[in-house]
Amino acid sequence: MGQSPIDLPSWLLLNLEPWRHATHWRIAFSGGLDSTVLLHLLVTLAKNESLPALSAIHIHHGLQAAADAWPQHCQAVCDAWGVPLQVQRVRVQPGASLERAARDARYTVFSSLTQTNEVLLTGQHRDDQAETLLFRLLRGAGVRGLGGMPSQRPVGQGVLVRPLLDVGRAELERYAQAHQLRWIEDPSNQDQHFSRNFLRQRIMPALTERWPQAQASLSRTAAHLREAQGLLDELARIDLAQAETAHEFDWLGVPSLALAPLAALSAARQRNALSHWLEPLTRLPDTDHWSGWTHLRDAAQDAAPVWRLADGELHRGAGRLWWLSGDWLQAPVIGGEWQAPASALRLPGNGRVMFSGQPPQGPLRIAYRQGGEVLRLADRGHRDLKRLLNERAVPGFLRGRLPLLFRGDELLAVANLAGLDGDTHGDWKLHWQPTDEDLGLR
């Protein structure tokens, strides 16, 4: 695009064509230059084009005194342009990175507000993309990170779109001045304590003085890296197809992979496939933390290794990898007897159990394995429960969660394990639904 002016309204309309049939366009409106130009462009287009309903969202972080006046400014702008405005106050959690904490708070609100068939529009531009690439490069990011900000991605139940990523800040300033727009200048943007401000004020000017097209080149590099990441994602899907095999514990609803197909890949392909698989489940580990994967993969056959990640744990058992989070990481708690076995019994943090057929006579209770339990089998006599679980290759993480049915001190059944889950005559079976979701029973 270079430095030549472009017809921003027409260019924006073409860029947003795929989302013309959305029910709602929400604009993230900070009141700064970028979002002010974006909102003005959309209001102008709406006068002559049939666009989805427009509204604006202003996030008040409450991080500086000057920000208290910004909602009033945004309200005045939106009133003048006939755009409904929603002001959301957020509490930014303290932490090492104030920038990241503010962003997380902002996008939590965006996710909660964006519904099905709705689009959230944000004003990041080409200069922002160049800064993002440089910032992540200096932090040692991989290909995924160096791809910068995507032009679109899911948010909430809808989609986030950044329609100005190919437009430079200078182009937005020219438009704003030509239309006599007023915008907020955030005082914190001058604070070079923040890494992005340092890059913007000290590094980028030096780069563009020597290489005038530096920002456009960096943005183009980010696009190349996003394309490379797309190829890596395709390779990951090919590799994962060999590991996402059906197994006898599918009913658990726990994400899992067969270990052998992954272990047969090169180390780089293992990391690529696992990163792709883990990305929707957890924040990905940094380079140093990937040693946890090596330990998990190479642990002895009789070991029960665990790789702890930001939002859960990866376990190994029964020849598979298992992703556990939430209740799966908490020890289940059981209280009292099963007073009404004709009805399902909810287990705190562990779904529910129920009978098919006529329940056995009581008093009945559900408990969990403590060690030393013995189950009587019609054709084999009394057998140690540990040995029975070994025979069925029950993963280690599951053994302490399987509901056990007792009558007094007598173990009658183990939920969901064929041959162990009911009486010898088939009059009843004990079923376990591990979560409150309807995952189906086997």
Kindly describe this structure:
It is built from 14 helices and 18 strands. With 442 residues, the protein is an alpha+beta fold. It has three domains: 8-227, 3-Layer(aba) Sandwich (Rossmann fold); 247-327, Chorismate Mutase Domain, subunit A (Up-down Bundle); 345-433, no CATH class. Strands 3-2-1-4-6-5 form a six-stranded mixed β-sheet, with helices on both faces. Strands 7-10-9-8 form a four-stranded antiparallel β-sheet. Strand 14 (374-377) and strand 15 form a beta hairpin. Helix 5 packs across helix 8 and helix 5 (126-138) crosses helix 9 (214-243). It is elongated.
How many individual β-strands? Answer: 18
Strand order, largest beta sheet: 3-2-1-4-6-5
How would you name the CATH homologous superfamily of the largest domain?
HUPs
Indicate the mean pLDDT.
Answer: 90
Classify the fold: give the CATH topology of the largest domain.
Answer: Rossmann fold
Structural class category: alpha+beta
Count the helices. How many? 14
Shape summary: elongated
Identify low-pLDDT runs.
437-442
CATH class type of the largest domain: Alpha Beta
Number of domains: 3
Please summarize the sheet with the most strands. 6 strands, mixed
- How much helicity do the residues have? 25-40%
Alpha carbon gap, first and last residue: 59 Å
The CATH architecture assignment of the largest domain turns out to be 3-Layer(aba) Sandwich
**CA-atom Rg in angstroms:** 28 Å
InterPro entries: Lysidine-tRNA-synth_C, Rossmann-like_a/b/a_fold, TilS/TtcA_N, tRNA_Ile_lys_synt, tRNA_Ile_lys_synt_N, tRNA_Ile_lys_synt_subst-bd
EC number: 6.3.4.19
Organism: Pseudomonas hamedanensis
Enzyme class: ligase
